[in-house]
Amino acid sequence: MALNPSFLGRLIAIGGNEDKADELIVLKRVVQEIGKTDYKVGVITTASEDPGKRGKDYHSVFTTLGASRIDIFTINDRIQANDRKSAETIADLDLIFFTGGDQLRLTTILGGTRIFDAIQKRLEDGALIAGTSAGATVFSDTMIYEGKSEDGLFKGSVLSTSGFGFVNKIIFDTHFMARGRIGRLIQTVTSNPTCIGVGIGEDSGVILKGDGVAEVVGTGQVIIVDGCGIMYSNIMDIKPGEPIAVENIRIHSLVDGYGYDFKKRRFLRPSSLSIQE
Question: How much is the pTM?
Answer without folding.
Answer: 0.96
